[in-house]
Amino acid sequence: MFESLFEKYPFFRAIPAFLCMAVIFKLSSMTGDDLQGFPHVWDKLAHFCEYATLAGCIAMWWTRGEWSVKVWRPILIVTALTLAYGCTDEFHQRYVEGRSCDAIDLVADTIGGLIGASIYALICKLLNKFDPLKAE
Fold first, then answer.
1. pTM reported for the whole predicted model
2. Which among 34, 42, 89, 93 counts the fewest CB atoms within 10 Å?
């Protein structure tokens, strides 16, 4: 849908990822008091969903055609980038009142990134199958 815009202005591919990172940073800035009624189990699901979304946004940095060549390479790169941002997020939470750095959150972030990148790859594969001319 946005391939023609992204082809003409490639830097637009990065905007959704940076917006997603800003939202995650804002959510990480919430103090423990702000999150008091939020159950611990849902916290891990929130991390998973945030980073699956971030992975989908980072995955847009590649064209659909690039996703069809060696699909494992962009999946690993996207997962590594989400893991790296997850590390900075956990480091940031160490300095927020009532929050802590949690390795289990980092696991949820990484799994979310891997699943998000894999879903994006699957969608690209399906789109390329039904519309191979748009795959570039």
1. 0.85
2. 42
- Per this entry, what is the length of the chain? 136
Give the gyration radius of the chain's Cα atoms: 16
Is residue 40 very low, low, confident or very high in pLDDT (cuts 50, 70, 90)?
low
Which residues, 6+ apart, have CB-to-CB distance to 110 below 8 Å? 51, 79, 82, 83, 86
What is the Cα–Cα distance from 14 to 136, expressed in whole angstroms?
19
Q: How far apart are CA 2 and CA 45, in angstroms?
A: 29
* 112-122 exposure pattern, b = at least 16 Cβ within 10 A, e = fewer: bbbbbbbebbe
Q: CB–CB of 44/111 below 8 Å?
A: no
Q: Rounded mean pLDDT of 61-88?
A: 90
